[in-house]
Structure prediction request, 211 residues.
Amino acid sequence: MFNHSFLIVAFSAIFTIVNPLGAVGPFLSMTARDPLDKRRSTAKRACLLAAAVLAVCAAVGSFVFQFFGITLPALKIAGGVLLFMVAIDMLNARESGAKTTKAERDEGALAEDIAIFPLGIPLLSGPGAMVSVFILIERAKTPMDEAYIYLSIVLTMLISYIMLNQAGRLAKFLGATGINVMSRMMGLILAAIAVQFILNGVLEAMPALKG
Prediction:
């Protein structure tokens, strides 16, 4: 049975936490001296790497929980807190330290190839995105739900590639103010998702509160 509502939840959660629009600025600054062909190649490889990382997280999520004895409520609460921290940074239109630090971005600017670090990891597939995938894979009730998660990862990275490939035009069209406004909007959505994760985790850990 198709659960299209789960697809909407999965895609919105993954796309919002990845926030490809927030990667446009760092991408442009780190590839300022690169020709167009190299920029496109960098964006493509970074998105493929990020997609692979998140897909692996989805594939091994259940094993990780069983191995470390992590319960779903604990993951929801911890993941919700982490996502809320990222959301606060997005609402304030600043780069989240949970994704990448200034030192990492500076190191990336000096690197010959930024596709793996810091663009692919952690800008596009940071801890927040990994935690989101972990939580979603545990919430999946059917194989179709799991397929929706993988589809959401692919769609997110496809859109990310398009946005990075058109980073220069996006920056000119939206400007710094436009990018910040969009980032704040996604930050608000992410904050709501994070709070819902926390609430669900608390209620599952202490079902007596439901009464």
